[in-house]
Write a structure and sequence with these properties.
Length: 217
């Protein structure tokens, strides 16, 4: 199975046809997609003028999208490296605390509850904000946009549903739409997050650029 760097090389390789270069970029998202696969793809398409289903997309646009993805991946890999090194030192010194570093290789580390509602800015900018929050004391607002309106998805029964378990996913931000990682939020913010109405979070199954009958490739 090809790794991220191998797939990135295929995106850049001018000897490949446009369809293969686009397909390789989509496969890069199987290795690293910070918003989740669909939301990350839509984000890149919107920022670089790529039609989500266009198999003949401009290679320059594909490479620009890849560069943004690579920047974000570098940010996250460096965070994981530093976190692992810090935990090794702490364990050596006998310090014990919950293991809340992301363990999913960068996929959906800052998942969007609705793929059509995403933070402003590049993926790298968003992850840098998240990393700063994770390396600081837990806060009371979304670490990405600063919004204080936080809602638990209607499928959950609120903060109490997480009692006794250490989970990454927290409430949904009412501003930028991310599922705020629990380690970035203080206990008071988690407890104060309200239960969303079932219609508050849209399914986001269709990108506005194409009709409901068309699926993502």
């Amino acid at each position: 199975m090809a790794g991220f760097r191998s797939l990135a090389y295929q995106v850049r390789d001018a000897r490949n046809d446009r369809a293969l270069r686009r397909h390789s970029l989509r496969r890069c998202l199987e290795r690293f997609a910070p918003y989740g696969h669909r939301a990350t793809w839509w984000h890149l398409c919107d920022r670089y003028g790529i039609a989500p289903e266009d198999r003949g997309a401009d290679p320059l646009r594909l490479v620009a999208a890849l560069e943004e993805l690579e920047d974000a991946r570098a940010v996250w890999l460096e965070y994981e490296r530093q976190f692992a090194a810090r935990r090794r030192r702490e364990k050596h010194d006998g310090v014990r605390r919950p293991e809340w570093a992301w363990g999913g290789s960068g996929d959906a580390v800052v998942r969007c509850a609705d793929p059509g509602v995403r933070p402003d800015g590049s993926l790298g900018e968003v992850l840098r904000r998240l990393v700063r929050a994770l390396e600081s004391e837990p806060g009371t607002a979304c670490p990405v946009c600063g919004e204080r309106e936080l809602r638990w998805p209607a499928a959950l029964s609120g903060h109490g549903a997480w009692a006794g378990a250490w989970a990454w996913d927290g409430p949904v931000c009412g501003g930028c739409g991310i599922v705020v990682p629990r380690p970035a939020l203080a206990d008071a913010a988690l407890a104060d997050a309200v239960l969303a109405h079932p219609t508050a979070v849209r399914p986001g199954s269709v990108h506005p650029a194409y009709p409901a009958s068309a699926g993502a490739a």
